[in-house]
Write a structure and sequence with these properties.
This protein is of the alpha/beta class. The chain has two domains: 154 residues, TPP-binding domain (Rossmann fold); 106 residues, 2-Layer Sandwich (SIR2/SIRT2 'Small Domain'). It is 31% helix and 15% strand. It contains eleven helices and nine strands. It has a six-stranded parallel sheet, with helices on both faces.
């Protein structure tokens, strides 16, 4: 598998990237099927299902993406703030941005797509079948929906890491520190709060008190090698793969499903539009994930109705 060799967003063999972006570059590619009954037949026999999710799965929950036209916080886009360099230059501004995102997420709820995945995992676990969620999202909506077997490859809004001692932990405080209360308004006319660094979130480990940062993968940073190893294991062992709400343009995640498809495993894409990888998959279901996914993952007639 290529997964273990790719540890940073944007790093990928240029030949492989070019092939993925051009869906017609491989021979004998037929249009993916949208036959739900055919998918359900395969689903009913699958023992190890990997579900890859991206921003599209959370869109129906009203989660802002800060991408594309209009994707601004004040006058900045995510790539202007989600970098180690931006945090070093202005930790107050970056923490305002992430504080705003944390507070917004606390007002959002899992949608039918998240709930369908969680229910499927719980139901199939009682049948000695496995469901693993591999998500690019940092919103924790899968966890709140009830999913247990989750790999968050880009981290979480609700985890922090100390820049001094490296300690990482869950953090659901609201506000995360007193100085950020009421701060982070996204209006472009809002000025930076200019919070002194000593008043920003601090490490609570004994004797440390170092500055905390969001435990998310910023642009230019390396993905966690342990998580990538676990992702590789899941993708190597799955006998069915779902790609839900992903653009298939963020690397290395963009290569996960095509690599699974390349070894002959059925892959089903659920998305509002085609992606650069669509033609590599066996199935494509067009529409909102909250509409298309629940019937796909519902209890199959062949399943034991008592569990």
């Amino acid at each position: 598998m290529i997964v273990c060799k790719i540890t940073c967003r944007g790093i990928l063999n240029s030949h492989l990237r070019a092939r993925l972006r051009n869906p017609w570059s491989s021979q004998n590619m037929a249009r993916p099927s949208s036959d739900l009954a055919a998918f359900r037949e395969i689903f009913s026999k699958a023992k190890h299902i990997a579900i890859l999710t991206g921003a599209g799965v959370s869109a129906e929950s009203g989660v802002p993406t800060f991408r594309g036209a209009g994707g601004y916080w004040r006058k900045w886009q995510a790539q202007d703030l989600a970098t180690p360099e931006a945090f070093a230059r202005n930790p107050s501004r970056v923490w305002e941005f992430y504080h705003y995102r944390r507070e917004v997420m606390l007002t959002k709820n899992p949608n039918p797509a998240h709930l369908a995945i969680a229910e499927c995992e719980e139901r199939l676990s009682k049948q000695a079948r496995k469901v693993t969620v591999i998500t690019q999202n940092i919103d924790e909506l899968h966890r709140r929906a009830g999913s247990k077997n989750i790999l968050e490859i880009h981290g979480s809004l609700f985890k922090t890491r100390c820049v001094s001692c490296g300690h990482e932990s869950a953090n659901y405080k609201s506000p995360i520190c007193a100085a950020l209360e009421g701060k982070g308004a996204p209006d472009p006319n809002t000025s930076d709060a200019g919070i002194p660094v000593q008043d920003l979130p601090r490490c609570e480990q004994a004797g440390c008190h170092g500055l905390l940062r969001p435990a998310v993968v910023w642009f230019g940073e390396t993905l966690d090698s342990d998580i990538l190893t676990r992702v590789e294991q899941e993708l190597d062992n799955c006998d069915l793969c779902l790609v839900v709400g992903t653009s298939s343009i963020v690397y290395p995640a963009a290569m996960f499903a095509p690599q699974v498809a390349a070894r002959g495993v059925p892959v089903a894409e659920f998305n509002m539009e085609d992606t650069p990888a669509t033609m590599r998959f066996k199935f494509h279901f067009h529409g909102p994930c909250g509409t298309t996914l629940p019937p796909a993952l519902a209890r199959h007639e062949t399943e034991d109705q008592t569990v």
